[in-house]
Structure formats: structure tokens, C-alpha cells
Amino acid sequence: MNIYADHAATTKMSRRAIEVMLPYMDQIYGNPSSLHSYGQRGAEALQNAREQMAKGLGCSPREITFVSGGSEADNQAVLSAARIGERKGKKHIVSTAFEHHAVLHTLDALKKQGFDITLLDVGEKGLVTPEQVEAALRPDTCLVTVMYANNEIGTILPIAGIGQVCRRAGVIFHTDAVQAAGHLPINVERDNIDLLSLSAHKFHGPKGIGVLYARKGIPLENLIYGGAQERGKRGGTENIPAIMGMAAAFSESQEKMEEKARKVTALRDRLIEGLSRIPHAVLNGDRESRLPGNVNFSFEGIEGESLLLLLDDKGICASSGSACTSGSLDPSHVLLAIGRPHELAHGSLRLTLDEENTEEEVDYMIRTVGEVVEYLRSISPLWRDLQSGKLPFMTKEA
Ligand SMILES: *Cc1c(COP(=O)(O)O)cnc(C)c1O
């Protein structure tokens, strides 16, 4: 078996996206800023892609800015809103403790510049309510930034309600929708979103391309100065092949969304059910308000890193949290944010599924994870102490 179960880290490109991209590499390769016919064909392609992205988000094409991916979109969104606030003497920002580092580290940088940051508690379920956001607002709040869905534990946040609270208070609302775009129906009007980030490689598009949606009237701050591309808000010759691939993958994901969500949710539920039977295992993240493909468990008495390596040997590609933190020995900030003690945060496993995964694969994963967890426990001093009663168990038997 060779199973890819790490779709929250990245996805393979769809055939359709690859085929759409190819002619933009060797035939329609003009620079959209050039006045000649080659350039004009590039400019037309760019406009088409912008319209497709806008259609999928329910906004106007003029509100779409092409950027290099989710991290850049998050940086530009948060920094732009902060500058708008600063000009009005408002330097308070509300966010959550389990945002992606592209948001959290941007907030760290703003803190050093005198901004006051409130990170909301996400509770054991990994959710925040509109009421929590409302209670955190102050007269000097300039931005609320709350992710649409969490990349590690898959929880889906009540974005429309949070957006409504912000709209009523006249505060700019940004959402990192990188895990949601292409998987959940998003509409910036219905959801009351002012700024939104998405990234193509999380929905079968190419890597290194994304979108920052900015509602009309919200001026963006440049991260990259240069030419007049993207209405002067992002210098640099547009990556037309990637932009075309993203638009194609996004349209395809909209068409397939419902059917795919049904199929992937069934696989997810089967996997959750199977892994729940392992003794002293606990599901991380809310059981209901959850992305179709996300499964995240902590197993007591083991190290997530060893679990990953052994699973890889058995043909299962998984993750112990976000790819961005693997390689570091710090436990996931997301698992700590939902109150998991260090030991449990270290023993975590994230399996993220897609429509290409099968029931056979799910059953193999249930069996194999069970065997590997049992093996690791058999050689774990921590597990021995738990079993002998020297240390208390933190989770239930099964
Ligand atoms: C992957 C991811 C990002 C970063 O996107 P890139 O395109 O890889 O820079 C940001 N936020 C979330 C929630 C993600 O899952």
C-alpha cells in the first residue's frame, strides 16, 4: 500500500488544472503588461481567471488580488488592516490562539510595533463563538482575524456570525480560508467577510499561487513594490500559468464540492470510528463542526514523530500536526490551544483524506495505526509508568 493521507499539507494537481496551464507556458506566454498581441492574450487570460475566482467567492473581479499563496495573503491582509487602524489611532487586534503561523507571526511583528493583540481561547473543542468575538471588541479594535477552518484539527468556525458582529461594530474582518476554499461553499457577502486568504495548492491547484480578496474600499498595503500589476498593490510579472491552473482547480472544486464532501465525510467517519477503538486515544477537534477530510487523534504514551516514521515505512503518509512545525520539537500550538497537555500534544497524528482515498485504504490505516501504536507502547517507558499506575492516565480506556 502507498497511501497519501496528508491533504491538509498539500494536494496533487488535478489533470484539468495541468492541462489548462500548459499552453500558457509555451504558446500564450506574453507579458500581460505588453501592448502587443501576445501581451493582450495574456491580459485576457488574467481577466478570465480573475472572473472565475470572483464567481467562486461571490465578489467582484476587482476585489481579487493574485499573490504567491496563503502566507503572503495572510501577511498582506493583516498588515493592511493594521495600517488602516493605525492611521485612526486604533491599534487593537482580535484573533485566536490557533491561527496558522502566517497570521500569528504577523501579529507578533505588529505587537513589537505597539499593537495590542487579544488571542481568543478556542476551548477544548477548538471553536470560538461570535459572542466571544463581540466581548473582545474595544473602541480601538481595528481588525478581527479568525480562520475559516483549522488546518490541524479541522474545526470549522462560525464565520458568518463572527463577520456579522464585526460588520455591526464597523471593524474589518479577515479570515484565513486556506483550508476551506475549494472544500466548503464560501460567499463573502453571506459570510460578511472583508478580507480573505486562499491558496491553490490546498485544492489541487499549483503551489506558489493564491488570492487575497479585499472588499471594495479597503486599501491594501504593498508588501512588494514594483510595477502596476494587481492595481499597483503587488508588483511583479503575473504568474499566468499558475493563475490559470488555480482558476481551473477552483472552478472544478466548486462543481464537485457536494458530491466530494459526501464521499470524503463517509471515509472520515469510518476512520474516526476505527481509530476510536484504540485504547487511550482521543479525537482532537470538535466532532461535528469539522472539515470533511480531517482526522486528528492523540494517543497516550507514544511520540508522534516515531509513529509517523513507522507509518511511513508501512506506506502511510501522515502528519503529526502542521507541516510547518514538523522538524521542530515544540508540540503543536493548536493542540496546546485546545488544552491538550504536552504529553498528549506530542503523541498526535493527523490524517487528512481526499476523494481519491478509498475504504480499503481507510481500513488498512485503522489496522496499521493500531499495530504501530501498540508496538510503540510496548517499548515506551512512559506507557509502562501509566500501566503500573505510577502516572495517571489522561484519557479513557476506549
Ligand atoms: C497552508 C496554509 C497556509 C499557507 O499557505 P501557503 O500557500 O502554503 O503559503 C495558511 N493558512 C492555512 C490555514 C494553511 O493551511
Mind explaining what this structure looks like?
- By secondary structure, the chain is an alpha/beta fold.
- It contains 13 helices and 12 strands.
- The strands form 3 sheets. The chain has a 7-stranded mixed beta sheet, sandwiched between helices. It has a 3-stranded antiparallel beta sheet with strand order 9-10-12.
- Strand 5, helix 7 (159-169) and strand 6 form a beta-alpha-beta unit.
- The longest helix is centred in the middle third of the chain and has 36 residues, at 240-275.
- The protein starts with a strand and ends in an 11-residue tail after the last helix.
- The relative contact order is 0.16.
- The protein binds pyridoxal-5'-phosphate.
- Pyridoxal-5'-phosphate binds at residues 69-71, 74, 100, 102, 147, 151, 176, 178-179, 199, 202, 210.
- Pyridoxal-5'-phosphate (PLP) binds next to helix 4.
- It is an enzyme of class 2 (transferase).
- This is Cysteine desulfurase.
- Its EC number is 2.8.1.7.
- Catalyzes the removal of elemental sulfur atoms from cysteine to produce alanine.
- InterPro entries: Aminotrans_V_dom, Aminotrans_V_PyrdxlP_BS, Cys_deSase_NifS_bac/arc, Cysteine_dSase, PyrdxlP-dep_Trfase, PyrdxlP-dep_Trfase_major, PyrdxlP-dep_Trfase_small.
